Each structure stands twice: as C-alpha cells, then as structure tokens.
C-alpha cells in the first residue's frame, strides 16, 4: 500500500494512544501509593459491591500480571491482577469497582454491553479476515476485495465504538458504588477520576486510530474507483 496523507493523522493518533497508555501506568503508580480511607483491598471492595447488587454467585479471582484486570462475561468471573486484588490503595479499589461495574451491566442487560457481546463472534471473524482481504486487494488491484475488506474492518471499528459507552458507564457505576457505600470520601474522588479517566482515554485513542484507518481505506477505495471509471 502506498503512503497516504491520512497516515500523518493516524501517526498523531498513535502518538496520543502511547501517551494515554503512559497516563494509565503513571496514574495507577501514583495512586497506588495513596491508601484508601476504607482500608479495604480491591478484592474486598469487589466482593462487597457484587454482594450489594445480589451477585453472590460471581466470584472474584486473582490473576498474574499488571493491569490485566477484566470481567469475563462467559464464565461470569471478576478477575483482578495481583496489585489490584491485594492492594488497599485508591488505584486498587477504583479498578476493582470498575470491573464489578461490568458485572452489574451484565446482570442488568445494559444495552451497549448486550450488543457488544452479540457482535463479538462476528467481529472475531471479520477482524481476522479484513487485513488479508485488504492486503490481497491492494496487491492485485482488486476493488471488490478491497471493498469487502473495508466492510469487514468496519465491523471491528463499530465494535470499538460500542465499547466506549460500556467503559464509561462502568466507571460511572464504580464511582457511584464507592461513594454510596462509603468506600471513598469525597476528597478521594479526584484520585478515582484520575485512575479511571486515564484508562478510558486508552479506549478513546484506540478507537480514534481505527476510525481514521477505516477512513483512509475508504478514501483510497473511492479514489481508485473514480480512476477506473
């Protein structure tokens, strides 16, 4: 594929993505050093919020790694990295509450999350095939393959776009849970916002890169199609 002017914009977005990842790491490190006033660990906070929402059957497990925390909707398990599971800091309980937010979304059939789950099998296939179709299409100058590759890639981009409200909503729920249960004081909310806000920024940056890349392919396809006419 030849260089396209949109590549400059994508490089800028990629730079923003790297900066966002750095922000996540630096904010987590900074607020990991600030003890939560509740004295509870991430695992204890997760368990408490799950129980308050009637999710007694959703276990909280510890997994190796750093910032590997996630909610598994298939197994219905909240998995927390060791620093979050055992940590008693603002960062630890913020991340734990966020992941529980996804479990509550699942319980309440939150619309964006339901749509995301339904799209996953399709996106899992299309995202794997799209690069191959685009590569072969550009090499062989086959507009039909390029067009199909763009359509498949668009599914992956749509999946990322839908992920944004899911993540923002989970963070919003986390903040409300912690305040309502007295797990944080109002003056600790700044730390929670810093940790969860930085994490959300990584999703925004990744989505921006994908949207711009899709736009680039569409522009190349349109120009090629016009040249062939």
TrEMBL record:
Pfam families from the UniProt entry: Zn_peptidase_2
Kindly indicate whether the keyword Protease belongs to this entry.
Answer: no
Entry superkingdom: Bacteria
What sections of the protein cross the membrane?
A: 122-140, 146-168, 195-219
- Which keywords label this protein? Membrane, Transmembrane, Transmembrane helix
Q: What is this protein called?
A: Peptidase
* Taxonomy of the source species: Bacteria, Bacillati, Bacillota, Bacilli, Bacillales
